[in-house]
Write a structure and sequence with these properties.
The protein is of the alpha/beta class. It is built from seven helices and ten strands. It starts with 7 loop residues before the first strand and ends with a strand. The relative contact order is 0.20.
């Protein structure tokens, strides 16, 4: 299946997301509309509980909106069934989280290969690509090491390589340097931004680090489930 593309990489129209926690209704998103063009690099900031991570999960198709529409590369993902949505996500969106979510029993190269394995692609070609990606993040000599044998910064570099495995047009990152010391954090920031530019991806990055946010050309500020500042450069 081939999914169509358009100039808007991400578009949300009136998206609301509600949760029920212990019989209490929580409005995490309260009618969010944003339009992010292809190749944009956008930082999403705001206080804890503002709805940043929920926004990221909805855009990454990890969560469905309660109401409203989500378009990724011109495709309305809101109406997709679970099987189609899972395949679309695998092809279209790469993820980097604060917790790298590597599988401890697998080597670095096997972790990077995982999205391709899930897609059913030939393992020989996947391994070649995974090794190249690990080389591109400076881990060419660590491909057979398991996560427990790697430092925190090295683990996050493996996670970044994994996010690039399927050459997705969109990368979403949720506090990708939040668990790292400052020196390692700056190194990972430099690497992530360089790779996004080189691969011509659209980046949506949630962070509390205003210094990191200032390095991106566009900023979205959230408060109480709403976008209170839309500084996306078109």
């Amino acid at each position: 299946m081939t999914f169509a593309t358009s100039q808007s990489a991400i578009r949300l129209d009136g998206v609301r997301k509600e949760y029920t926690i212990e019989a209490t209704r929580v409005e995490a998103l309260r009618g969010v509309s944003v339009d992010i063009p292809e190749g944009a690099m956008v930082a999403v900031t705001g206080k804890s509980g503002a709805g940043k991570s929920t926004l990221l999960h909805v855009i990454g198709t990890l969560d469905r909106p309660t109401t409203g529409q989500v378009f990724i590369n011109g495709v309305d993902v809101s109406s997709m069934n679970d099987k189609t949505l899972s395949r679309f996500r695998n092809q279209s969106v790469g993820f980097v989280f604060q917790m790298n979510n590597l599988l401890p029993e697998f080597s670095a190269v096997e972790n990077v290969m995982m999205p391709g394995i899930i897609a059913g692609l030939p393992t020989t070609e996947l391994r070649k690509r995974a090794v190249k990606l690990l080389e591109s993040v400076g881990l060419g000599e660590r491909v057979e090491h398991k996560p427990g044998e790697l430092s925190g910064g090295e683990q996050q570099r493996v996670a970044i390589a994994r996010a690039l495995m399927m050459s997705p047009p969109i990368l979403v990152a949720d506090e990708p340097t939040g668990n790292l010391d400052r020196k390692t954090s700056l190194m990972i920031q430099d690497l992530l931004l360089e790779l996004v530019r080189n691969h011509r991806m659209t980046l949506l990055l949630v962070t509390h680090d205003m210094e990191l946010a200032s390095r991106l050309p566009s900023q979205i500020v959230m408060e109480d489930g709403l976008v209170v500042h839309d500084g996306v450069v078109h």
